[in-house]
């Protein structure tokens, strides 16, 4: 069975993270599942070169260096210090929430695949760093795995230099609209995946969040007809077009005493205030993404209430109403107050 490009890239990352030594292209070819399908050295060289560029576009810190002081042979590895997240200090309730999430996201299939890859690396003679072994990279969140079919098809189209056509939703509740795009790259930004390319219908450069792209991705056109311009930086494009590079505005949010710590960390407390008989504080925060901060606030229900701006308050109400309608918990939402918002004077009103 042929190995997909997504699986091959995952195998390559596991291989390069499993050791601190530089690995030659020949060793990588023999160790990473997917490269054995290369019919010649030239075919492998082209495939490996594309994969290296793909990893760098995704933000993976791939390094090149000599195997030793006495060798001129070039090798490759991933800079683990730049790849791994820094230590995160979590409160007790936050750590408990993460533990629950990990249990929910565990994937036996990926665990088996990672362990199989590690065994093959050891069998090939690669010195695996067991202390930081990515065999512990056992799972990808279920929601991320949900976009894998689209991700694989988009990467394949980019690799082949073909245009794509797919259904896309401008927002989670919007109707899907067919988009025709010349794809250039798939990049990550602020924990989300984006397709970057030229929108043929709109005749402009656009970005598309992968979670809103349907699985019905169709590649078409002559192979090699689509090529990313040399002067285009996909990651910088996403940061600029998605507004992740600067502050989009400010908001004031009331949070209940001892609750909504995530909202508190985003800003600073400016005053104390009682809302609907509950004591709390008003937090002023800078907003880079209105959509993201609306989801964060909505996730805390009645413990976080938007005071201003009105547009953000309405967006939070829409999120809560949509969840209540979808899960049939409208009465519970009203009873527990998770559908409440506040006007500019802090008085609780019903949406």
TrEMBL record:
InterPro entries: CBASS_pafABC_assoc_protein, WCX_dom, WYL_dom. It holds the Pfam family WCX. Coiled coil: none annotated. Residues 150-214 form the WYL domain. Residues 250-322 form the WCX domain. This is WYL domain-containing protein. It comes from Rhodococcoides kroppenstedtii.
């Amino acid at each position: 069975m042929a190995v997909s490009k997504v699986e091959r890239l995952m195998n390559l990352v596991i291989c390069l993270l499993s050791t601190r030594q530089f690995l030659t292209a020949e060793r990588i070819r023999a160790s990473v599942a997917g490269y054995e399908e290369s019919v010649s050295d030239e075919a492998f060289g082209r495939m490996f070169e594309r994969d290296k560029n793909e990893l760098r576009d995704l933000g993976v810190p791939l390094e090149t260096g000599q195997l030793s002081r006495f060798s001129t042979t070039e090798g490759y590895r991933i800079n683990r210090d730049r790849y791994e997240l820094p230590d995160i200090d979590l409160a007790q309730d936050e750590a408990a929430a993460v533990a629950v999430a990990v249990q929910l996201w565990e994937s036996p299939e990926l665990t088996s695949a990672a362990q199989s890859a590690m065994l093959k690396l050891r069998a090939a003679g690669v010195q695996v760093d067991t202390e930081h072994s990515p065999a512990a990279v056992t799972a990808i969140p279920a929601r991320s795995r949900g976009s894998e079919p689209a991700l694989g098809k988009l990467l394949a189209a980019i690799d082949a230099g073909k245009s794509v056509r797919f259904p896309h939703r401008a927002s989670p509740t919007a109707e899907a609209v067919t988009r025709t795009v010349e794809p250039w790259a798939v990049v990550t930004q602020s924990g989300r995946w984006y397709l970057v390319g030229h929108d043929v219908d709109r005749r402009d450069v656009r970005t598309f969040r992968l979670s809103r792209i349907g699985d019905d991705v169709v590649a078409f056109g002559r192979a090699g007809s689509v090529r990313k311009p040399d002067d285009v930086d996909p990651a910088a494009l996403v940061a600029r077009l998605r507004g992740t590079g600067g502050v989009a505005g400010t908001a004031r949010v009331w949070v209940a005493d001892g609750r909504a710590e995530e909202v508190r960390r985003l800003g600073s407390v400016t005053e104390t205030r009682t809302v609907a008989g509950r004591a709390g504080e008003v937090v002023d925060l800078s907003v880079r993404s209105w959509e993201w901060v609306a989801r964060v606030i909505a996730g805390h229900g009645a413990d976080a209430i938007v005071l201003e701006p009105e547009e953000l308050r309405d967006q939070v109400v829409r999120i809560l109403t949509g969840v209540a309608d979808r899960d049939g918990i409208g009465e519970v939402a009203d009873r527990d107050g998770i559908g409440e918002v506040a006007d500019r004077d802090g008085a609780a009103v019903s949406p």
